[in-house]
Specification:
The structure is a single chain. By secondary structure, the protein is mainly α. The protein folds into 2 domains: 2-61; 85-307, Orthogonal Bundle (MetI-like fold). It has 12 helices and no strands. Helix 3 runs antiparallel to helix 9 (218-233) and helix 9 packs antiparallel against helix 12 (277-307). The longest helix is centred in the N-terminal third of the chain and has 60 residues, at 2-61. The protein is globular and about 70 Å long.
């Protein structure tokens, strides 16, 4: 009897050691995941703290009403005005042009990759399209300045060398992979049963793609568009190189403008004295851009929750 009893005790001890090792690995994995989450949260808090202190100092000298309502932005001139309207308008103008370019092409590419492309074709085209997202933005900026702008001047002779149109177009090309890839992922996640049911009712492939799959993936598609809008609004090098540094309140895409990010670059690389009111403007502009991006992300999350389709 001693042999079977000893074997049973040995097996139990061995299983106990395995369970303890597994539990230790699980605790380690949970700790690593918690650390990664904590780092992300602390980074966000640190960014907010770094912006908040200097932004509060700025608003001690500049009225919030003037900041939001004045139509001139000249903090680097002798006659200073601190109306952020021209910078916000320029940022929204270039972002809108980018979306006009990126949304149609991105969604068409997503529909093709999800519903029409052969798996081998998709395996080649999707990574090739995503290569656009890996091109340095400074390259996009010079491409807009020395290629796109001269090309557009052949059709629009009054187009300035620095303008919002070419910057917005190239920025749209840059964010096409963001929309197409995320939208294609959302459409691919639609259950095959919906497609099969539509085909069973006599629908064509195009009708299935546009009337069944597209509406079912609508929340993911909208989230990708809002994410692309946030990316366009925060773009720096393209607008800094191709759009100019002229803070004027205008919706004319053919003239030089200055976006929020371009202004931050201008002041950060200039001779503005540290701690001066002109220097503090970069924190006020950065905080404003942060709030705009936060609002767009909140809207994105709301859209995803509101329009999300759940399938059994």
């Amino acid at each position: 009897m001693e042999g079977p009893i000893q074997a049973s005790l040995y097996t139990k001890c061995k299983l106990g050691r395995r369970n303890r090792a597994r539990d230790a690995r699980e605790r380690l994995i949970a700790a690593v995941l918690l650390l990664a989450t904590t780092i992300g949260v602390l980074t966000t808090v640190a960014i907010i703290a770094s912006l908040a202190g200097e932004t509060v100092r700025f608003f001690r000298d500049v009225s919030v009403v003037e900041f939001l309502t004045d139509t001139q932005w000249t903090p680097l001139f002798s006659e200073q005005h601190f109306g952020i309207g021209p910078l916000v308008t320029a940022t929204l103008l270039t972002s809108a042009i980018a979306l006009v370019i990126a949304v149609p092409f991105g969604l068409v590419a997503a529909i093709y990759l999800s519903e029409f492309a052969h798996p081998r074709t998709r395996a080649v085209l999707k990574p090739a399209l995503e290569v656009l997202a890996g091109v340095p933005t400074v390259v996009y900026g010079f491409f807009a300045l020395i290629v796109v702008t001269p090309f557009l001047q052949g059709f629009i002779p009054s187009l300035s060398t620095f303008n919002a149109l070419s910057a917005g177009i190239v920025m749209g090309l840059m964010i096409i992979p963001l929309i197409s890839s995320l939208s294609e992922d959302a459409m691919s996640a639609v259950p095959a049963s919906l497609r099969e049911g539509a085909y069973g009712l006599g629908s064509t492939r195009f009708e299935v793609a546009t009337r069944v799959v597209f509406p079912a993936a609508f929340s993911g598609i909208i989230a990708s568009i809002i994410l692309a809008l946030s990316r366009a609004g925060g773009e720096t090098m393209i607008v800094a190189i191709a759009a100019g540094q002229r803070p004027v309140l205008t919706l004319d895409p053919t003239v030089p403008i200055e976006t929020m990010t371009a202004y931050i670059v201008q002041v950060s690389l200039g001779d503005t004295p540290y701690g001066s009111l002109s220097y503090l403007t970069i924190f006020a502009v950065g905080a404003s851009l942060f709030v705009m991006t936060l609002v767009m992300n909140v809207i994105s999350h709301w859209v995803v929750r509101h329009f999300r389709e759940e399938y059994d």
